[in-house]
Prior knowledge:
Layout: E1 2-7, E2 13-21, E3 28-32, E4 45-46, E5 51-59, E6 63-70, E7 73-75, E8 82-86, E9 91-97
Antiparallel strand pairs: 1-2, 2-5, 3-6, 4-5, 6-7, 6-9, 8-9
GO molecular function, one term: starch binding
Protein name: Glycoside hydrolase
Keywords: Hydrolase
Amino acid sequence: MAIAKQYLKTKPVCKVTFTVPAEDAKKVAVVGDFNDWSPKGSTLKKLKNGTFKGTFDLPKESTFEFKYLVDGTYVNETEADRYQWNDYAGSENAVLEL
Length: 98
């Protein structure tokens, strides 16, 4: 798994690319604070090599909790900026700091 951040000089956003190797998965989405934990509109595209990838514009100078939703199972990003306990989920969430 990987996260790539590209800060834009002309806009107050950061292009964040999420990459998830999940060859056997049918569907992968990234869900978090930035999309109300909804997989709608945040599904990653499956590439020929079996990796799922997607890029989203997120506001700069923000912090977001998130997870991947891989075929209905929540999975944390191994290369997150940090992790934070979430009482509602009863587990740690990955944290993205922009």
